[in-house]
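Task 17 of the worksheet. Students: predict the tertiary structure of the chain below and write it out as structure tokens. Keep your answer in the requested format; marks are given for formatting as well as content.
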Amino acid sequence: MNIAFYQQDIVWNDREANYDRVRERLARLIEPVDIIILPETFSCGFGDNMVAMAEQQDGPSMQFAAETAALYDALFVATWPVRVGEKVYNRLHWVRPDGTFGFYDKGHTFRVSGEADIIARGTERCVFEWRGWRIKPAVCYDLRFPKWLRNGVRESERSKLPTDGVSMCDETIALDYDLMIACANWPGSRHEAWSTLLKARAIENLSYVVGVNRVGADGADINYTGNSAAVDFKGLPVAECESGKDQLMTARLEKESLEKFRQHWPFFLDFD
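Model answer:
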């Protein structure tokens, strides 16, 4: 699985400028990729502005996402605020090249910043499939809640598990997901927590984790250093962006390596 993730300096409240910025960066891609990942609220920035910048589901950001997914024959993953009736959600979308899409509404809105006062909280956890990979979506603050993001053995695989509680497993077991994607606006003042949580979620869930954060300063003069990274199932970096740099990064994730590690170290047999 080849991925591209863009550690973006988001232009405050300017969709077209952000679309242009993403177009310019993606034009630098040399090799084909399967997934393109952008930060949380890539089109407008994160803050009280999200209510005013909220779009209808089929609004301009969805149109841009569909066009980009089709152009690169890749899954487009990012969040932007969406209005549904009287509510606004911080909605992570995955948009396929054929224009079909799915979404996940941020489950843990950040009360410290006031997000919880203006953005409705999502209540549904989900996993989706893309090109043979099962993917778990997450948004920023979600990373602090391991139970919400917990991996597990797929229901269809449970018959393969040993029944005596002590034996090892002779077969390859498929877990709920193989890759977690976390889109974020995580301030630089807490960058150590961000980097640590990416590794922790990867290790405990026997999964790759890709965390994509913004850089620059937002409309409230909060600074972001990015520290975006793809982390493997051992918590080791596969690819990392430079701190504070507006940067497009690519990485290759190996499914075979993941499955071999799970087979050799079947920690999932003792999941709570």
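Marker's comment: The first strand starts at residue 2 and ends at 7. Helices lie at 15-26, 49-52, 60-72, 115-118, 191-205, 255-264.
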